[in-house]
Every structure is written in C-alpha cells, then in structure tokens.
Write a structure and sequence with these properties.
By secondary structure, the protein is an alpha/beta fold. It has 15 helices and 9 strands.
Length: about 290
C-alpha cells in the first residue's frame, strides 16, 4: 500500500513520521519546505502538489486546519481530485464541519473514490507518541481496509458511522475538552484565591470523580506556566465554531459551549489565541487578580 500525506503541521508531521516507522511507502507534500525536507530525510518521497501526490498512491491522508483548506486541497485546482485514481481512498484526518465532509465525499464519489472522515484527539504529545484517538466516519468496509494504517498513528481507532459521523464525534469531543479546561481553570483560581495551594487541590481531586485525562494533562502545565501550544486556542475556536454551527443547523442546545467560546474569543482579543488552550486560566486570573502556580 502506497500512502500519500498532505499537511505536515504540528499534528501532521509526527503522524506522517509514525506512518513511515510502521513501514509504509509514503509520499508527502506541504507548504513549509522545512517539514517536507525533514520527512524526505526519513525516507519519504516528495511531491510538488496534492494532484501529484494522488497520482502516485492508493490512499491520500489530509491533515489541514479547517474546512476551506481541506476543500481547496482535495477539490481545488491541482487538488487530489485531479490526480486520484478510481478505487482509491481519501482519509481526511482534519477536524472540520460534518457537512463539509459530506460535500467532499459526494464530489469524490463521482470519480469512484471513497472518503473516510477521521479526525483525531490527543494533541501534539499523543501525535508524537503515536497514541492518538481516531474517530472515523464512512463505509465500514473501507474503514476495515485501512484500520491498520490508521492504527500506525493511534492507540484507538473507532468506527462511528456514515461520512460526517467522525467529525460529529470530534465536535462532541471538543466540547467536552473545552468545558473540562474551563471548569479546571475556575476551580484552581477559586482555590488559589481562597489561599489553598492549587497543587494540593489537584492531587486531592485527581483520583476522584473530578479526575480526568484533561485535568492530568493540563493542570501541571498551568501550575508550571507552560503555555506553548500543544493545541492552540485559535484551533479550538475553529472547532467550537463548527460545533455551534452544526448545533444551530440541527436544533441542539449548547449553552455551555457558547459560554466557553466567548472566553476563548476574549483570549483572542488579548492576542493570546496562539497559546495552548490551557492558557484559558489567564482569563480567570485577570478577573480574580491571582496567579495559579506551584
């Protein structure tokens, strides 16, 4: 199986590296030449365009910021659709709107090409480790065929239903992550303002019902004041906007999601949306006039 990979960003580059480590023949392209050269040095072949990638492979993986970029790379000029062969498959591992996945799938189907929408969760650390969680929509037989390929980047790959189901599942995931981070920030600021050491609060609650993967991943970063992006606030804004748009289209109430979105928009107004989403703590710290640290 020959694999194409388009989009070697914070997430895409380590994911592509793990595909190489698993022994797959890989063709890559990317706007940043530095990332492209790094993959080529590890054994990948390079291509000049998405079309050129698609011409050489059996399956194309895309890992891009949002719906417009995915549409451009797959359906645009010199895009995947111009080069891909009938019977090939596109696996879009970006986090985009479910309706966009369905639109792209419909266009690819005209060329006899199947789409899996397979967004991931876990951020840069798990992308590097190859322990991402992948949620996949599309035809079950296509999912089964490419399960091992997706597992080369992941600890969990779960089939969730028809095309669009993967990204719907990712929206649910991103809502829960955002609300968890906001709740963590509120609680640690409360504790600090009350004169209790936040590190002791964290150790006391992490083994109980309030404990979570989010708490264990983000509370230490907050207390160590490490806000380098594992997952940028501006990307989470994108995901929550997709969640809000989808919710409004189908008539699902998401009051708490809207509230956290406004907090993230306040961070953006402060010029802090390039930071990790754990930096939401700064919003609460400014209001309470405290700093949460060890």
């Amino acid at each position: 199986m020959k694999v194409g990979f388009i989009g070697l960003g914070i997430m895409g580059k380590p994911m592509a590296k793990n595909i190489l480590k698993a022994g797959f023949d890989l063709v890559v392209t990317n706007r940043s030449k530095a990332s492209l050269e790094e993959l080529v040095a590890l054994g990948a072949s390079s291509a000049q365009s998405a079309k050129e990638v698609a011409q050489q492979v059996d399956v194309v993986i895309t890992m891009l910021p949002n719906s417009p970029q995915v549409k451009e790379v797959i359906l645009g000029e010199n895009g995947v659709i111009d080069g891909i062969k009938e019977g090939s498959v596109v696996i879009d591992m970006s986090s985009i709107a479910p309706l966009a996945s369905q639109e792209i799938s419909a266009q690819l189907a005209k060329k006899g090409v199947e789409l899996l929408d397979a967004p991931v969760s876990g951020g840069e650390p798990k992308a590097i480790e190859g322990t991402l969680s992948v949620m996949v929509g599309g035809k079950k037989e296509v999912f089964d065929k490419f399960y091992e390929l997706m597992m080369s980047m992941a600890a969990s790959v779960v089939y969730t239903g028809k095309v669009g189901a993967g990204n719907t599942t990712k929206l649910a995931n991103q809502i829960i992550v955002a609300l968890n981070i906001a709740a963590m920030c509120e609680s640690l600021v409360l504790a600090t303002k009350a004169g209790v050491e936040p590190e002791l609060v964290y150790e006391a609650i992490r083994g109980g019902l309030a404990g979570s993967t989010v708490l264990d991943a983000k509370a230490p970063l907050v207390m160590d004041r490490k806000f380098d992006p594992g997952f940028k606030i501006n990307l989470h804004i994108k995901d929550l906007q997709n969640a809000l748009d989808t919710a409004h289209e189908i008539g699902a109430p998401v009051h708490l999601t809207a509230a956290v979105m406004e907090i993230m928009q306040a961070m953006k107004a402060q010029g802090e949306d390039h930071l990790d989403h754990s930096a939401l703590i700064r919003y609460y710290e400014r209001l309470a006039k405290v700093e949460v640290k060890r």
